[in-house]
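Hi support team,

I've been running sequence recovery on a batch of backbones for a student project. Most finish fine, but this one hangs at about 90% for roughly twenty minutes before it completes. I'm not sure whether the input is malformed or the queue is just slow. I've pasted the C-alpha cells below so you can try to reproduce it. Let me know if you need the job ID as well.

Thanks,
M.K.
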C-alpha cells in the first residue's frame, strides 16, 4: 500500500475539482464561445438598424464608420495670363487683369510668351483645370510681337499638323483678347484672331468670345483700347465665376451644337478665321453672351449637318423626278413631246 495515498482526502472539494478539471475547462470554453457568438449577433443587429436609419447618401460618405465631408469639386484651379507685347500695352493689361482676379482667391500667373515653350508646357493645360487668357498684340503685316513669335509659329504649325489633330488640346480652356489698331484694316487684330483659331483647331475650349482692342479711338467699340479691354475683362471675370461654380456653357441658340443647330446664326458656328465669321465675330463680341466651344464639338455638329444636307439633296432629286414625270404626262396629253422629257 502506497503510504502517500493515506495523506489524500478524496472527499475534499478541492481534490474533486482537480480531478474533474477537464470538465471545468470544457465548460469555460463552451461558455466563452457562446459569449463570442452572442457578441457577433448583437453587433450585426446594431449595424443593420444603423443602416436603416442612416440615409443612403450619408452612407456613401462614410469611411470606416466616420462621416467624412463631401469633397468639393474644383472646376477652376487657377488662371494663367499669357501676354505677347512689344510696347507694353498687353503686358500692362495682363497685370491689370491679374490684380482684378486677386479678389477671386485663385492662383494667378502672368506669363510673357517669350519665356514660354508651348512644346514643353502647353499640353499641361489639358488637365490642369486652369483657364488661360491670351493677351496678344498685332504688328506690321499682321505679325506677332517679337516676344510671341516662337509661340505663334509653334501654334500655327501644330494646328496645321495632322499628327497633333483636333484633340491635342482637348480639355484646355482659354479666352483671347487681341490688341490692334483698325487703321491697319486688312491686318487688324490678326494675331488675336489667329491664336484664337489655332487653339480652337487643336481642340482647346474657348470659354468666351474673342475680345478686340482697337487703338483707333474713332472706331473703337468702347472709345479706346483701354475701354475695350475693361469691357472684355468684366466679361471674363463673370465667365470665370460661372466656370468656378461648374456652370456649363451658355448657348442662346446661335451655336451649331446639339439642339440649337437649327437656329444657328453666329460667328462661333463658322470656322474661325473665315470671312463670314470675322464679320460676325466683330458684332458678337458686343452682343453675344459668351459660350464655350471647341473644334471637335463643332465638327461633330457639322458632320450631322452635312448628313442632313445629303438627305436634303436626295429629297430634291426625288421631287425633281416627280416634276419631270408629270411634265411628260402633260406634254404627251397636250400633243407636244419635249426632248428633255423624252430623255427622261
Ligand atoms: C509699327 C506698328 C505696326 C502695327 N501693325 C498693326 C497691324 O498690322 N494690325 C493691328 O491690328 N495693329 C497694329 N499695330 C497696333 C498695335 O497692335 C497696338 O498699338 C497694340 O496696342 C500694341 O500693343 P503692345 O504695346 O502690347 O505691343 C501696329 C503698331 C505699330 C507701332
Amino acid at each position: 500500500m502506497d503510504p502517500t495515498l493515506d495523506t489524500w482526502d478524496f472527499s475534499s472539494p478541492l481534490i474533486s475539482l482537480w480531478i474533474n478539471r477537464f470538465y471545468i475547462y470544457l465548460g469555460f470554453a463552451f461558455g466563452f464561445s457562446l459569449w463570442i457568438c452572442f457578441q457577433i449577433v448583437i453587433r450585426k443587429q446594431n449595424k443593420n438598424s444603423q443602416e436603416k436609419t442612416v440615409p443612403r447618401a450619408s452612407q456613401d460618405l462614410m469611411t470606416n464608420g466616420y462621416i467624412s465631408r463631401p469633397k468639393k469639386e474644383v472646376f477652376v484651379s487657377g488662371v494663367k495670363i499669357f501676354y505677347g507685347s512689344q510696347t507694353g500695352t498687353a503686358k500692362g493689361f495682363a497685370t491689370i487683369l491679374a490684380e482684378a482676379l486677386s479678389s477671386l482667391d485663385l492662383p494667378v500667373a502672368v506669363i510673357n510668351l517669350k519665356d514660354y515653350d508651348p512644346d514643353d508646357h502647353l499640353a499641361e493645360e489639358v488637365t490642369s483645370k486652369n483657364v488661360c487668357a491670351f493677351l496678344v498684340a498685332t504688328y506690321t503685316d499682321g505679325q506677332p510681337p517679337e516676344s510671341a513669335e516662337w509661340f505663334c509659329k509653334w501654334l500655327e504649325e501644330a494646328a496645321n499638323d495632322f499628327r497633333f489633330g483636333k484633340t491635342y488640346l482637348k480639355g484646355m480652356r482659354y479666352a483671347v483678347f487681341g490688341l490692334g489698331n483698325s487703321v491697319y484694316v486688312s491686318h487688324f487684330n490678326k494675331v488675336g484672331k489667329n491664336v484664337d483659331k489655332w487653339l480652337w483647331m487643336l481642340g482647346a475650349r474657348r470659354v468666351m468670345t474673342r475680345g478686340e482692342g482697337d487703338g483707333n479711338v474713332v472706331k473703337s467699340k468702347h472709345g479706346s483700347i483701354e475701354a475695350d479691354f475693361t469691357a472684355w475683362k468684366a466679361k471674363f471675370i463673370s465667365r470665370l465665376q460661372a466656370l468656378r461654380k461648374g456652370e456649363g456653357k451658355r448657348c442662346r441658340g446661335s451655336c451649331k451644337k446639339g439642339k440649337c443647330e437649327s437656329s444657328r446664326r453666329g460667328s462661333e458656328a463658322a470656322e474661325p478665321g473665315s470671312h463670314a465669321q470675322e464679320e460676325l465675330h466683330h458684332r458678337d463680341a458686343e452682343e453675344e453672351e459668351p459660350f464655350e466651344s471647341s473644334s471637335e464639338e463643332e465638327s461633330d455638329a457639322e458632320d450631322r449637318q452635312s448628313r442632313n444636307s445629303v438627305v436634303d439633296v436626295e429629297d430634291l432629286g426625288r421631287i425633281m423626278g416627280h416634276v419631270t414625270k408629270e411634265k411628260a404626262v402633260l406634254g404627251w396629253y397636250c400633243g407636244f413631246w419635249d426632248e428633255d422629257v423624252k430623255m427622261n
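--
Follow-up from support: It reproduced on our side and the slowdown came from queue contention, not your input. The chain has two domains: 11-56, 78-293. No action needed from you.
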